[in-house]
Amino acid sequence: MIKDIMADARERMEKTIDALQADLRAIRTGRASPALVEKLTVEYYGSPTPLIQLAGITVPEPRMLMIRPWDRNTLGIIEKAILKSDLGLTPNNDGQAIRLILPQLTEERRRDLNKQVARRVEEARVSARNIRRDAIDMLRDAEKEKMIDEDDLHKGQEQIQELTDKYIKQIDEVGKAKEAEILEG
To answer: pLDDT per residue over 38-49, tens digit each?
Structure first.
């Protein structure tokens, strides 16, 4: 019983870290990364479509993204989607592809990006704590239903707290790595 609850909590916390890493990949640093735009939503034939499904995205230079649509007719709508996004980048459309030049980050922009990182890291911590609370509630319910005794309940709570501490530490490390990347970029 306790093993099942622990396995469920561990799996959910892993997903929290995966989601945080995916979120942070989309935050712009000084270096170009396809993750910056691949989830950008483009209105394609009336339905919102991620850019990655409409174009190949490459990094020909450290500060440049090249977007080559599979269908050249989508160049205009991709360009509009980039302009409407909060990326703050101006697309250069040459009729074949769109180039995005990433400017150097200003000190103010770096601080803003680090605030975004801190906010997302805190959301991940809250998620991990909610998972901990759910797991402890499941243990208490199991004790009420006499599926485990009081000793097992306390042992399970300690194990879940250790697991939570481990994942919160990982979450913090992911956040620190992204902040360092922003500062160096």
So the answer is: 888 898 888 999
Is 1.10.132.20 the CATH number for 2-25+106-184?
yes
- pTM (whole model) above 0.85: no
User: In the sheet where 98-101 sits, what is the strand order?
Assistant: 55-61, 64-69, 98-101, 91-93
Q: Where in the chain is the domain with CATH 3.30.1360.40?
A: 34-101
What angle, rounded to 10 degrees, do the helices at 107-144 and 2-25 form? 170
Q: What is 34-101's CATH number?
A: 3.30.1360.40
For residues 96 and 94, give the distance between their C-alpha atoms in angstroms, rounded to a whole number. 6
CA dihedral 9, 10, 14, 16 (to 10 degrees): 20
Closest CA to 59 of 102, 105, 104, 109: 102
Q: Are 30 and 22 in contact (CB under 8 A)?
A: no
Tell me the longest C-alpha to C-alpha distance in the chain: 70
Element spanning 124, H or E: helix 107-144
DSSP annotation of 103 reads: P
Q: Classify the C-alpha dihedral 125-131-134-140 as positive or negative.
A: negative
